[in-house]
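STRUCTURE:
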């Protein structure tokens, strides 16, 4: 079988390579899966560079999220379509513990299923963590990302006011159409000034995916007693925290990671999250965008498309 692998960390275009390896054999309690679709996320690229929270055990395949079909399993019937997360999904076949597999609902395509977990469940989980309800005010960075679009749609359903930051003027209308209260182009507008115009006392919560200077500016937009959840570092720069603001406005900054949140959920909580998110995706109350699909062997072209400015949807390896 074919897999995309790296033997040293670095830029994906420099270190990833396609190689032929033997078909894996599932251990007891594992399923053999033929992988049909894989989603390229920022975490995948950071993992290959050695910049993610999980350290690669080299050599390693890339990718964390995928959809596939059961070839062999003690729990699932052969042919069952499933989605899953795992270290190294950019391969034709993989072995995954049965307990970690989520059956794909009838009518959901592989292209949607392979991106139905990480970003949608992260968006859902962060909103659940915040406890924000109708009338609440939320500022998110990286509003035009796949995660940001889902946050906006889920929050709008709950009656939460969402202000989103973007880097290009042409991204604004799309987010407004999804339900954002306001969209700020950080290249031409002041985040703090715009937020103050809309919410003079500040917002209740900030969800930050960028870090760096954008994260620092977003922090100043919180009302007294507000909280920032930090879950990404797209800028690759840490947030320069203003101690005075933290002290005198009684603010708090907390890290948020899907893996940690998911592990703390009860079985009831897991089922509730999956049901709500999948229902919205199936009914298309929440939409996910697909920019282009590439065969696994064309992963280099896929990475070029992923890095291209102006991209509005996900790049998939199928």
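SEQUENCE:
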């Amino acid at each position: 079988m074919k897999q995309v692998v790296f033997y040293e960390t670095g830029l994906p275009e420099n270190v990833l390579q396609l190689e032929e390896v033997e078909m894996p054999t599932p251990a007891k309690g594992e399923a053999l899966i033929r992988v049909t679709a894989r989603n390229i996320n920022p975490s995948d690229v950071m993992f290959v560079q050695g910049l993610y929270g999980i350290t690669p055990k080299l050599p390693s395949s890339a990718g964390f999220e995928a959809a596939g079909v059961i070839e062999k399993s003690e729990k699932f019937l052969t042919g069952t379509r499933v989605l899953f997360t795992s270290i190294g999904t950019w391969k034709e076949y993989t072995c995954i513990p049965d307990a970690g597999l989520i059956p794909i609902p009838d009518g959901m395509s592989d292209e949607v299923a392979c991106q139905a977990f990480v970003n949608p469940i992260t968006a859902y989980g962060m909103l659940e963590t915040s406890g924000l309800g109708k009338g609440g005010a939320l500022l998110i960075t990286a509003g035009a990302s796949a995660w940001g679009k889902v946050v906006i749609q889920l929050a709008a359903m709950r009656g939460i006011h969402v202000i989103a930051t973007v880097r290009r003027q042409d991204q604004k209308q799309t987010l407004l159409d999804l339900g954002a209260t306001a969209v700020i182009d950080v290249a031409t507008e002041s985040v703090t000034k715009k937020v103050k115009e809309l919410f003079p006392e500040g917002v209740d919560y900030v969800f930050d995916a960028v870090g760096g200077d954008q994260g620092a500016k977003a922090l100043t937009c919180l009302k007294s007693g507000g909280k920032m959840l930090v879950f990404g570092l797209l800028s690759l720069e840490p947030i320069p925290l203003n101690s005075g603001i933290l002290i005198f406005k009684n603010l708090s900054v907390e890290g948020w990671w899907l893996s940690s949140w998911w592990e703390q959920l009860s079985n009831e909580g897991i089922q509730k999250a999956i049901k709500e998110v999948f229902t919205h995706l199936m009914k298309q109350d929440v939409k996910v965008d697909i920019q282009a699909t590439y065969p696994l062997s064309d992963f280099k072209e896929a990475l070029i498309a992923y890095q291209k400015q102006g991209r509005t949807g996900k790049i998939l390896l199928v």
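REMARK: The two ends are 14 Å apart (CA to CA).
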